[in-house]
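Thread: Spermidine/putrescine transport system permease protein PotC, structure

OP (GT): Posting the sequence first so everyone is looking at the same thing. Length is 271 residues per the record. Can we get the structure tokens written out before standup tomorrow? I want them in the notebook alongside the other entries.
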Amino acid sequence: MTMKKPSRVLRLRDFPGIGPIAIFGIVFLYIPIIITTIYAFNDGDSALIWRGFSVRWFGEVAQNANLLSAVWVSLQIAVVATTGATIFAILFALAVDRLRSKFSGLTTAILTAPLVIPEIVLAVATLGFIRMIGLTPGMLALILAHTSFCIPFALMPVRARLKGLGTDYFEAATDLGASSWQLFRRVTLPLLTPGIISGAILAFVISLDDFIISNFLSAAGATPLPVFLFSLIRRGASPAVNVVATLLLVLAIVVTTITFLQSQRRSKQNA
């Protein structure tokens, strides 16, 4: 009987040049974020010239009515778009799962096409369509556009989770006499929860971060935060921009941490 040789463990040194490239990529990605966070506490009036430590720009941001209005607009759009995109993604994933594989692949490809279409093309097309149906740039147009292009991002984790589940759970529930509503509420929805949460977070971040489509569809009184920050930078780099970036970074860290802890707790409960 021949003994099977253990597989060789690959190390980073087995791939010459990969280590320095990885280090350069990490430095290039995170050093600007660290610098932006540090300069949020700059006492000077320039975002790029250090004049001493101060938190006065946090107070300036808290008292800037226009900036707070832009934050509120972005949060409203992101929440509504995320809710609509996530609900649609759940329903679409469950519906397309019952189609034959040929039609399933076709419909999914059509719905996820915005992932590969340049965003400037989507922005121009969306603006043209909005004008065609009689709407004008503003809050409603922004919500419709954000909901539309957030759907693929909410759909991917849900579909991946649904495919990974197989059919055993659903067949067992059906054999035990569960109705369609009971199957959805007590089996499907709880099992899809990790994918739903991941998709919703991804859609929320994408909506909050979008600039190109938002810039095409924004209007007076409905200016999202990225568009407002861009106009702020054009008038001169201010530490207020660094403060907003830092606060958004903290928000992202908090949301990611909470999601990770919930995922860990759920894994321990299922173990």
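GT: Both are above now. Quick notes for whoever picks this up: The chain has a mean pLDDT of 82. The domain at 76-227 is CATH 1.10.3720.10 (MetI-like fold).
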